[in-house]
Amino acid sequence: MDRESLEKNALKTGTTTIGIIAKDAVVVAAEQKSTMGYLIESKLAKKIFKLDDNIGMTIAGMVGDALALIRLMKAQLKLYKLERGAITVRGAATLLSNILQGSKYFPYLNQLIIAGYDQQPAIYSIDAFGGYDNLDKFYSTGSGSPFAYGVLEAEYKENLPTEDAIALAIKAIKSAIERDIGSGGKGFSVAYIDKNGFRELTSQEIKKYAS
After folding, report:
1. Ramachandran angles phi, psi of 103, nearest 5°
2. Distance between CA 44 and CA 42 in Å, rounded?
3. 120-132, pLDDT tens digit by residue?
4. Which of 27, 43, 49, 195 is the most buried (most CB within 10 A)?
5. How distant is the alpha carbon of residue 56 from its chain centre?
6. Can you give the pTM of this predicted structure?
């Protein structure tokens, strides 16, 4: 299978994840359905992970590859912190990019969002071969991303309060669930990262924003 086919397969795996820059935080969200071909493997799959106190990551693509990357990134960030102190969000994105580029002949079949807060909120969309972009204020990955982007493009505004960014992320995820066969599950996972660190919302908090 050539590079282009590998990348297309990674991006087509059923999922919708979102990252949004708010005024004082970065918000990440994902639905919770995990598929294996035409089988729904799980309705409560985890797709948002804390990598460090101020950095999180969303996953779309092959679950085994993603979990291996999460373990590797957590270990590398702990080593970095011991030797040099806390890493920046850009540093974490560059590290992940280098790992993926170094594995391009046997790639991790994922599309990832690195989100975090150091001096300000930051977000990076990273493809399966280590290419990354941080020029936009929001990103979506996975098969439901075209539907999510429709909502984000129409309703995103600069300097959104964190609460409004959370509500927008959930609205975009719900839009994807309505139209994308690969996205779904019983609920959503939502987290935000601000100057106080990474915080994942409870199911009750998510229900409040979803309503």
Report:
1. -110, 20
2. 6
3. 999 999 999 999 9
4. 27
5. 8
6. 0.90
Higher local confidence (pLDDT), 207 or 28:
28
Report the Cα 205 to chain-centroid distance in Å: 20
Contacts of 37 (CB under 8 A, 6+ apart): none
Boundaries of domain holding 168: 3-210
Percent of the chain, pLDDT > 70?
92
Query: Alpha carbon 115 to chain centroid distance?
Result: 7
In which region does residue 16 sit, left (phi positive, over 0), alpha (psi from -120 to 50) or beta (all else)? beta
Structure tokens at 72: 């590797």
Distance CA 141, CA 56 (A): 15
Burial 78-102 (b: 16+ CB within 10 A, else e): eebeeeeeebebebbbbbbbebbee
User: Which residues, 6 or more positions from 97, have their beta carbon under 8 angstroms from its beta carbon?
Assistant: 126, 130, 131, 132
User: What whole-number distance in Å separates Cα of residue 108 and Cα of residue 69?
Assistant: 8
**Rounded-to-integer distance, Cα 72 and Cα 51, Å:** 10
Q: ∠97-99-103 over CA atoms, to 5°?
A: 115
Sign of CA dihedral 50, 52, 58, 62: negative
Provide the CATH number for the domain around residue 132: 3.60.20.10
Spatial CA neighbour of 175 closest among 18, 34, 8, 23 = 18
Give how many domains the chain has, as a whole number: 1
35 labelled catalytic? no
pLDDT of residue 13: 55
